[in-house]
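Instructor's aside before we start: the two examples that follow are unrelated to each other. I chose them only because their records fit on one page, so don't look for a connection. First example below.
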Amino acid sequence: MRLGWAGRRRQDCKRGSRLISTCPLPACRRPHPAQGLLQVVGPGRSAHRLVAMTRDPSGAAARSLPPGVQVVGGDLDDPRSLQPALAGVSAVYCHALSKDGATADPQELVRARHLAAAARDAGVQLVLYNSSGGRGCGYGISQMEQKHQVEDVLAAALPTVALQATLFMEELWKRYTRPGILAGTFTWSTPSDKPLQLVAARDLGLAAGTLLADGGGVEVPGSGLRAIELAGDALSPAQMCEAFSKVQGIPVKHRRAPAWPFWFLARDVFRISRFLTERGYRADVAACRAQFPGLLTFNDFLVSTSWADPSRTFEDGIAFSESKLPSTGGKSLSG
């Protein structure tokens, strides 16, 4: 996915550079993007030194990190705490600025401004930000549009790579979807034959790590923003049912539910359904898989998360089995 922008510039993160992964929430339960990042640039896998920033350096998220990752305190709601945390940092990977919610959280933009100003003042060379695909689609999806505003806030301050997610595979683990699938019915509001582009949340971190690995440069256009729409697979609901059936050992059928009730219950969900039905994401799946070895296919995701085990729940946290994950190929394709 080498895109030929005019006036682009290369942001170098030399071997031994100090990188930081930000997790602004006080308790990030199983932060999947961080897992993907660690798979590529974690201790013993890269010459970079990885630092994790969290509001609570003694909390569960910090304790779950492997030895060799430095933990520092920093709160994106408290700009004064960011300067010491960012001191000496070459690149920032920001994988969240708000919690999941039915609509956009205005505080997400406030935190983006705090991070942009602090990173610029600290001399950070590059920010990688987990965003959303579908930029400019015109469907009025508040969460999607606000993430694109965050991209602009960051890029106005310093070179930024927006890792734009397609539909997260993890969404299917949630309690409004997975129990029915395990019982044999995939209730979903888009057409059975309309492909959905999919990505595992873990793989946004893997993509960030790949771009930074082994001291390679990351090319950013003159505008300051490089956007990469990410997908590891593309399957229709009917094809997803085949994958569910394979791992569960029972037939699974797609039932297309009407989307209109969401207009009254959760308007962004209604708009997302329309977007997926009428337009959809536009990632180049083959290019993504070539540039980022180790991206999960949908079947990889189901197998590596033990999807068919009914004792596991989304609320308990999705755990990936390292032995079932594909290899990253040991190859950096940054820049």
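Example two begins here.
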Amino acid sequence: MNGAGAAFILDNKNEIILSVGNKELITPNMIEMVKQNSDNNIKNVDSIDIILTTLSSYNNKFTYVSAVPNSVYMKEINQMRLYTIFWAAIMMIAGFMLSVLFAKKNTKPINNLVKQLQNYSNHDITNYNNELDFIAQTTLAALSETHYIRKTMQDYLPLLQNGLISKLLQGNNLDIEQFDSIMEISGLNLNKAHFLVIIVGLEVEKGMELKLEPHLAKFAAINILSEMLQKICNIYICDFGLDTFTILINSDMDDEFPETLIYVLSQSVEYVSKNLAIHLTCGVSTIRQTLEEIHEAHNEAQLAYEYCHYNTRGSIQYYDDINISTYKYYYPFEEEMRLINYVKNGNKAKVQETIHSIININYTKTTLPLPLARCLFFDIMSTALKIVHEVGIDSWDAFDKDPASLLTSCENIDDMEKTLYDILDVLCDKTAEKRDEYHEKLRKDILEYINQNYHNPDLSLSTIASVFHFTPSYISRFLKEYVGVNFTEYLREQRINKSLQYIMNTNLAISEIAEKVGYTSSIVFIRNFKKIHGITPGEMRLRKGIPDSSTTFI
């Protein structure tokens, strides 16, 4: 025991037998306390707090006593307390430094993300509380833009599906694996086992009074036939012109399907002829089983339609019933339709190219006698007469002599080819004049409709196509050709131009202005406005000195 405390042994008479340590602590008062109370406790002995520890022996009646000043214990405890406080402070400082380090390290990716969003995002977002608020605003803007893109894609899905079906029918370099993925995106579902193609021609019955306008009557006839067929199979319609369209049927066809199809087509043709005074001429292919064979089915339907078109209009012709051996020269319906379209479009170069191709096929591979050659040219001449009738040219006054007489007076193939070129060249000019008048009126009507309905957020190509009874693809091509911009660009310009009046002359909030000009999202409106004018609507107001009451930061 060190000198700070003492230990001693008392006999049964309470006399000290042995003692060690600081003997000054061993006083009569301490011995008296040991005699009176043997409990281990802190005792005040001679004004000194002492921790007494006693142990009695029952055998020899000795008492063993340990006396240590309380200050000795407290010194150790205080020292431990100081150590504890010191190390606790060290740990707190280290923890704080580690927290700062980890916080800086963990927020670095967020800061990098914010910088990347600021560099690559098209959204003009400058009013935000912190990085997370910026990310939230950017995410909401991106979701809004995604919704807008998705809606736009939905508007153009009919165009995409129409293009895919056209490619299937034409069969040019068809990659089935790639085609399947595109079909999935467009929502085109061709997973049934069998395919069949029907080409339908529409012709107003002469001498009959229509209950509807011609274009409305034809539109109604297409809808009637489509609804009748949809009751027995899945169908997809592809437009090829104002008076013809192609139906692709995809269904699981049993042995009874051909008879059912014959019945439905017959009922449809009869109903349309009786109620709308329109002849439906149908060419029907054989049943095919793969996507690759759709092109062959289309060729069969074309041949069946051609045969039916030149024999009995307003009827149905099945490819299996055609006696193909009756065809002796090459001038298929597909070539005729192509030639008609070229003449209607005034494309003289393509007209000459098509005529030259037909003549080359007929006179390079085979040698036709002159009478049969004249039949071929009069066949082509009949195509010209159809163009005259469809376009509405009043007479043949543009020619010095009757075109039929001009052809019969030719003595060889070269003369007939040149004469036919001259006749179709004049028709190209005449149809161009008619087409320009019609297209100018249609252009004005479409633009007027857009200008009157720009504030409608649901205004789309499909809406306009429905109003003017054309397909969305035709309206899209028409606007691009005769207005110079596509539908989306023109509608955006009109909406942004209209918004200037509200921006400069009213105190409406930007979100209210966006809604008035047809936008469902102020973010899309601000982005389109900036794309055209280079600044946001709010910045334009500030430059013009107009107070901006908008609560949305722009």
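The chain has a mean pLDDT of 78.
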